[in-house]
Amino acid sequence: MALAGGYRNNNYQEESIYNLIPKIQERPPKEPRYRSTFTKTVKQDTSSFRQSNKTMGPPKVVTHQPDEFLKKHSKEPKLPDKKPFRYEDETKRRPAVPKHSEKPLMGIRSNKNFITTNAVENIMSVPKKPEKKFADTRDGSTHPLTPSGLTPKYTQKKDYGKTPQYLERRKAETERAQADYDSYIQERMRQGAMKQMSYGERQAIIDGLKKNWEDLHHQYQGLSVVTDTAPKKARKERMEAEMKQLERDIDMIEKHQVIYLAN
Question: Which one of 131, 157, 192 terminates a domain?
Fold first, then answer.
């Protein structure tokens, strides 16, 4: 139906014979029901962890004899046997105050100077180290630091008392190098390229070097104290250098027990 104003209102439809034909209402398709992805897992866990007698109790209840009925005080806890009471500080107590009927010992005198004795004890005593403490409140409440666990204790480490790994590796490398060196020496000796110096030869060389050092030292002591000329100074320096070289040679030979000589 057309309205005045030159436009058509959408709320009103035009009259048509087709509107008399009943129309079938089409319902939108229903969305599938939601199913969790863990349904199978829950069913399997329920069936595997299901325990019998969980809510209904055991199938057969143990019955008691007629004379085993609940008796008086049977559910009360049993207390330990009575013991005589003693204070914890009983052994540390001071002796009791003497009674008025007890008379003290009279006539005992001591020549000990307590002032001097106390002064000497305080002077000779070792000062006590202050105890380590920590404060955990703003009011200054202190507690011992050692048992608190705030400071590391190296004696409680898992590897305490064990050889470090780098020392084990260094030891293995040293042993391997020594084994390679020994095999090399044996191979060279087998080929005849070197030989080992005997103990007698080594001792003879050491004795000869010491004898040369003694002779050179005797000459050195005979030098003039005043080195006012160039020849005197040069001779003194040359003798000192020779003595130092002899000392190095002696130390080197004495340090090595085994010496190899190349042919």
Answer: 192
Q: How far apart are CA 127 and CA 79, in angstroms?
A: 51
Residues in CB range of 104: below 8 A, 6 or more apart: 98
Task: Provide the residue range defining the domain that includes 245.
Answer: 195-261
Q: What is the pLDDT of residues 85-122, one digit of tens each?
A: 888 888 888 888 989 888 888 888 888 999 999 999 99
Cα separation of 222 and 216, whole Å? 10
Number of domains observed in the structure of the chain: 2
Q: b vs e for 20-32, b when ≥16 Cβ sit within 10 Å of the residue's Cβ? A: eeeeeeeeeeeee
Tokens of 229: 């000329």
Rounded distance, CA 201 to CA 250, Å?
Answer: 14
This model's pTM is above 0.85: no
